[in-house]
C-alpha cells in the first residue's frame, strides 16, 4: 500500500487551491446526503467493524455505505468510487489529576453525532476522541478534517451532512424497532437520595391521587407518581411531571415494565423515552431486583409472587458462577430491544455445519457477487452474521495482565466483545409488521420466517434449509365407511402437544393451586412454585393419536361425516426441530403459557412413527371433490369459492394465533386457503400481511360480489389462462417447482386442495418436468450469478434413520410470546454453553426440561 499523504497542519499544509485541484476530478462522485438517504457510518456492510475498530470505518461519499479496512478495496474495485470519509473513534482512559480524580480530556464532540457509544465504556474512567479525514483511493491520500477553508464548499457541506446524519435504523413510525432509544445523558451521573425508600413488589399507587395505573418511579427519590393521561395510552393526572418541575429529578421508570431484560425509562428533561445503562443499579437502590421481576397478564409486577424457582432464574442459571467462553463459535449478540428471539434462533442456526458451509464457507464468493447495496441482500447479510459469530474476531478473552489489573483494582475493564445485528434485523424484518416492530416475538414464528427467506434466496448447489424439511403423511379416515385417504405435506417443525392430563404430580398441583389462591386473597406471598411434571412419552403419544376432523366431507358418502386424521413421518429430516406447544388461549381468549417441566431425552428414537402408506385391507376414499355451486351468470365465476357456507378450521386458527398473528387475519388465512391446515394458511399470511385490511374482520361477499382478499387467492383464471399467482406461490413454498404448480392448478380448475392431491398422484410428471429456478423477490439480488439450478424431483428431503441426539434448545421466560425473554443452550465440544444475548458462558445446569424449541441431529446409522 502506498504511503498516505497527510494534508493538514505544520509543514504538510497545502494551499487551498492545491486541495481544490486535488478533489476536482472526483467532484461529480461526491454527493450531499438528502432526506431519505441512509448513511451507514456506524457499521461495515460486510463485517461488524465500526469507527471503534482498529482500522476505523470508511464511508463512501457517493453511496454512504460503510466499509471496514478489510472490505474497502472490494468496494473501490467494484464501483470505482474514490473518495471516502474515514471515521475513527479512540477510546482512552482519563488522566488522573493531582487530587486523585480524573481530568476530563478534550473531546472532539462535533464529529460523530448519533454514533452509538459502547455501554461497557460508559463510566468515569473512559472517554472518546473522534477523528475524521477524507481518503482518496487508490493512492490513499488523506485530508484531515475539519478543513473548512481549504476544501471546496460542496465537499465541506457533504462532510458536515454525513457526520450529522441520523442513524439509518431510525424511522418515523414510533412502533418500529428501528426507532432506537438513546442512552440518557443523566444515566451515568444520576444522583440517588439515601432516604431509605424501598419499593414493594406490588400494590403500588400514586402518592398524590391513589391511582393504581400508569405509575412511574422517580429514580432519584423513589417517589411513585402517575403519568399523563395520554402517555402510553393509560390514565393519569400528571403528578410525575409536576414532581419533576418541582424537584428537577430527571429520570423515571414505569412500574409494570421491569424485567430481567430492561425497563421503560423516561427522561423529563430530554422529553423522550431513553435507555438507562445503569438501570439495574438504580433499581437496586430502592430494593428492586430486576432478575426477580416478571410481567403479569394485566401488565402489573409482582416480585414476591414469583418464588426463587422461577423460570427466569432456572433458565438463565442465576445464582451460579458461570465461566465466560471466548473464541470462534462463542460470540454473543446484543439485544436491540426485545430482539432476543432473533439472537437465540441465529445462534442455533449457525451451530449447524450445513449453514456454516453455505454462508461462511462461501463468504468470499457471496461478497464478490453481492449487489451494489449489500445491506439489502439476504445472502450477504447471512454470511456477514455467520462470520461474525464463528470467526472469533468479536469474542476475544482479556489479556492476563488486564485480568490481574482488574483483580488488583477490584474493577471491571470493559471488553469489545459481541456483535450488534442491527443491519441483519433491519433487512430480514423489512415489510413484516411484527418482526419490524419493537415488540417481543415468537422464536418459532421467526424460525419459519427465516427458513422461508432461505428458500427464496438459494446459494450454492445445496439449500441449507433442506436439513430441516420432512414429509408428513396424513391418514384421514371416514368413521362411517371406514375408507381412508393418504396425503403428504411438507413441514419443518414437529409440534408436540403438552399432555397436561398425564402430569405425574397432580396432587401437588392441586394443593399448590389452593394455597396460591388463599395467599392471593390474603395478599400474602405465594407458596413455593410447583410446576407440572409431564413425561415426554405422554407428549409423543398425544402427537401420534388420531384427531377429529371438523366438518369432514366424506367422498364415499357424498356427505359430511365424522372423520379422524393421523399424522406420521413420511421422511425423517437430518435435523429434527421439536416445538413444545406451551402457548395456548384461556377461556377469555387471553394468550397464556403452560409452565411445565418435560423430561426431554438426550437421545430420541421416533422410528415407530414412520409412515406405512396404504395397508392391506384398507380401501381408499373416492377421488371426488365436494360439490361447488356454479352461478348462472358467467361473470360471477370469480366468486365460485365464496358461496359455500363459512367453514373455518378453528384449530388451525388457534395455531396461527399462537404465533402472534392477529386473530381475524388467521381466520381469513384459514378460510381463503380452504381449511387445508395451518402450514398453507401461514403462507397466505406471509403473502398478504402488508395489505391494509390484513387484520380486518373476515367479510364473506354476497353472491355476485367480488372479494378483495379472496379474489387474490382464488380469483378467476385470467385472459392468459394462468392460475392466480398467489396460489402458485403457496405451492412453490412447499418445495415444488413453478411449472408443476401451474400444471396442477390448471388441471384442477384452481382448486388448491385438489391441486396438491394431483401433484402427489402424478409423480411421473414431477420427474419429467423441466428444471426451474424460482426467482421470487430477486430483483435486487446480484447473487443470482452464483445460484445453482434446482432439481425438479419435488420437495427436497434428506431421509434417513429416526434416531436423534439433542444438541441445542431455546427457552422462553415470561407469560406469553408477546413478552419475556429467550435464551439458547447449545452443546459444543462436549459441553453445554448458554447464549444469553451478549453473555456466552459454560453452562452448569442446562434446564433441558424447560425448553420451548429443541434441536436434534440424526445419529448416523
UniProtKB/TrEMBL annotation:
It is an enzyme of class 3 (hydrolase). It comes from the Eukaryota. Its EC number is 3.4.19.12. One of its GO terms (molecular function) is zinc ion binding. GO terms for cellular component: cytoplasm. The keyword Hydrolase applies. InterPro entries: Papain-like_cys_pep_sf, Peptidase_C19_UCH, Ub_carboxyl-term_hydrolase, UBA, UBA-like_sf, Ubiquitinyl_hydrolase, UBP13_Znf-UBP_var, USP. Keywords: Autophagy, Cytoplasm, Hydrolase, Isopeptide bond, Metal-binding, Phosphoprotein, Protease, Repeat, Thiol protease, Ubl conjugation, Ubl conjugation pathway, Zinc, Zinc-finger. Its main location: cytoplasm. Residues 647-688, 722-762 form the UBA domain. Zn(2+) binds at residues 206, 209, 226, 239. Residues 182-290 form the UBP-type domain. Interacts with UFD1. Interacts (via UBA domains) with SIAH2 (when ubiquitinated). Interacts with BAG6; the interaction is direct and may mediate UBL4A deubiquitination. Interacts (via UBA 2 domain) with AMFR; the interaction is direct. Interacts with UBL4A; may be indirect via BAG6. Interacts with NEDD4. Belongs to the peptidase C19 family. This is Ubiquitin carboxyl-terminal hydrolase. It comes from Aquila chrysaetos chrysaetos.
